[in-house]
Specification:
Elements lengths: L2 H19 L17 H11 L7 H14 L3 E5 L2 H11 L7 E5 L4 H9 L3 E5 L10 H11 E4 L2 E4 L6 E7 L8 H11 L3 E4 L7 E2 L2 E2 L6 E5 L12 E5 L2 H11 L23 H11 L2 H19 L5 E3 L6 E2 L5 E5 L7 H10 L5 E2 L19 H9 E4 L7
Parallel strand pairs: 2-3, 2-6, 6-7, 7-10
Antiparallel strand pairs: 1-11, 4-5, 8-9, 8-13, 10-11, 12-14, 14-16, 15-16
Helix pairs in contact: 1-10, 1-11, 2-9, 3-9, 4-5, 4-8, 6-7
Bound molecules: pyridoxal-5'-phosphate.
């Protein structure tokens, strides 16, 4: 590596970030929550009510408001996004030893949910524009590997049922979900959307999470809004939400006093305390969305002055929530990535590379994956930069 070049470019990137972020005494994290609304009021109301656990007014209200925000029939709030994905998979009929198709480039929670449902992941490549699962490869794979029997699709090579496609909207940028949804319908495979990062993201006015059978959001502390820890399952099928809610509530049958459970359920419902925080955060969603879009414009303008790097834009036709801003390094500068990460962090600017590809992680090495050329290229090119709404 040319040491001088590395140093200059890394300092160039750090300089642009430093200019945007302004004078700072403390470390600027990649993403931090903002609590400038009714958080303390609702939390103390919740405590006064004594209903702090997995039932209460704030849970009902949060579920209604999430459904309204996303534009679906109903939702169920859960303890985190991973648990939500697990339940969503089970609710659309994923069973032990089934295969679930997902992109190789995502947070590990996406793949973990597949394994929690005891299913087998099949990793596909992503596409350049959205970093989401590649519709063309998906269609090719279903066409060449799938065989239809009794209304279900089976993998000809393994004999397993292909019971779901799990698409992910990376950094809040909508993937080509309309295309993916049409393919899934054609092959009769349920579509689950991992919208953990995509609250507020839309395609032509239609919210992410409403293109398939079911969508799942996360409200972890680093997401666009937070409930401390939490998630929500949304669907236009009341059947799916009912099933997910039942499983999340220890599969308990309604009865005035008896404890009757009709299957092995989970303790996955969101506590009222977390929902109280969520209700206050939801009131600020529009404001967060405006700030994040503004931050993207500021970063984009600032980095247009520096050659060899660009800020990841939203895909065409899509309206991103710009949850996490990302720099894309030109091919020629990929070898400078670690120098940039090192220099920025040393200068108190929180940056990180994108996740390692899922099929390279220890628990996922033995599962099937297709050619992953785009995912492999992007794994080396992306650097996330400070993205908090509070930076504006
Ligand atoms: C955050 C995240 C999850 C998991 O959500 P948790 O609430 O942390 O369990 C799943 N998928 C993606 C893409 C995420 O970013």
């Amino acid at each position: 590596m040319d040491k001088t070049l590395a140093k200059n470019f890394a300092e160039g990137v750090t300089g642009v970030l430093a200019e945007v972020l302004g004078p700072r005494k403390q470390f600027v994290p990649l993403h931090e929550p903002a609590f400038n609304g009714n958080e303390k009021l609702y939390l103390s109301q919740c405590i006064d009510s004594t209903y702090v656990s997995s039932a209460g007014e704030f849970v009902d209200r949060f579920e209604e408001e999430i459904a309204q925000t996303v534009g679906v029939e109903s939702s169920v709030a859960v303890v985190n996004g991973t648990a939500g994905l697990h339940l969503a998979l089970e609710a659309v009929g994923v069973r032990e030893c089934d295969e679930v198709i997902l992109p190789a480039l995502s947070f590990v929670g996406t793949a973990n949910a597949v394994r929690h449902a005891k299913a087998v992941p099949v990793f596909l490549d992503v596409e350049r524009e959205s970093l989401g699962i590649c519709p063309e490869q998906l269609e090719n794979w279903l066409l060449s590997s799938g065989e239809s029997k009794n209304g279900s699709l089976f993998n000809k090579a393994t004999g397993a049922r292909i019971s779901a496609v799990l698409a992910v909207h990376i950094f809040g940028h909508p993937c080509r979900i309309e295309k993916i949804s049409a393919i899934c319908k054609r092959y009769n495979v349920p579509l689950v959307e991992d919208c953990a990062e995509a609250l507020g993201s839309k395609i032509l006015g239609k919210h992410c999470g409403t293109f398939g059978e079911v969508g799942v959001f996360s409200f972890n502390g680093n997401k666009i809004l937070t409930t401390g820890g939490g998630g929500a399952i949304v669907s236009n099928s009341n059947e799916i939400v009912k099933k997910a809610k039942h499983l999340a509530t220890t599969a308990k049958l309604p009865h005035a006093w008896r404890f009757l459970h009709d299957e092995v359920g989970y303790n996955y419902r969101m506590p009222n305390l977390n929902a109280a925080l969520g209700c206050a955060q939801l009131e600020q969603l529009d404001h967060f969305l405006i700030s994040k879009r503004q931050l993207f414009k500021i970063y984009s303008d600032a980095f247009s002055e520096l050659e060899g790097v660009e800020v990841l834009p939203e895909p065409s036709n899509a309206n991103s929530n710009f949850w996490l801003q990302a720099l894309i390094l030109d091919e020629a500068n990929v070898f400078l990535r670690d120098a940039i990460l090192e220099t920025t962090n040393r200068n108190k600017i929180g940056t990180r590379p994108i996740w390692d590809l899922l099929p390279t992680l220890e628990p996922y090495k033995s599962f099937q994956s297709q050619t992953l050329n785009v995912a492999k290229a992007f794994e080396t090119k992306i650097i996330n930069i400070p993205s908090s709404a509070s930076l504006i």
